[in-house]
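Ticket #4471: structure export looks truncated?
Reporter: QA, pipeline team
Priority: medium

Steps to reproduce: submit the single chain below to the structure queue and open the exported record.
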Amino acid sequence: MNKIKRAIIMASGLGTRLRPLTLTVPKPLLKVGGVVMIESIIDGLLANNISEIHIVTGYLKDCFAYLPDKYPNADIDLIFNEDYQECNNISSLYVARNFLDETMIIDGDQIIRNQQVLTPFFERSGYNSAYITQGTNEWLQQTKNGTVVSCSRNGGQCGFQLYGISRWTKRDSFQLRQDLELEFVQKHNHQAYWDDVAMFCHPDHYQLGIFEMSSSDVIEIDSMKDLEALNESLLKKRRKDL
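Actual output as written to the record:
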């Protein structure tokens, strides 16, 4: 059994699909049902005794400055990615590469509804994933004997939908750092997603597995329509509970 020692939260993006809200507030700091997205992640990490947390910022970086004071029991480290406008999020993991060592990597723009999905204990490197049978446009993985054998960027009908939470063993953390440096520095692959490195650029370097969860455990917000629908749903639930 492997155990996560630290987390990297990716929070540098522009959040253009949620404008005008993100003109003044970075997407990870938006509230969903009254809860700040990145705070739901930090709360979940602390509930699982993961207190070393590195947050990669970029767009509106000063907005994140309150987090170390809000969480005095956590070791929160803010890392600025100066390339956040010119490069894709591969640049964010690159600036945090020295902290790849038994690490959980988390997208900062999601709501954690079930803190158990951030448990530090895991068998093999891979992504939190939910099995779907009704089709999706999100990244969709296929497995054989518990090992990921393919991933479609365009989704599909059946398979394991990939979510923005992944765990990396000590061996795979080191390998990911090497492959990341190769792609970003030597190959100048600056417009890639960091996830491309293990999933598409160097899949033969890894034997990724699945950390299975329910699709209701994590909420990803990709558009204003998603945000409005979710807030309305949560409001109706609160009224019903009163």
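Status: closed, not a bug. The export was complete when the record was re-opened. Leaving a note from the reviewer for reference: The first strand starts at residue 2 and ends at 3.
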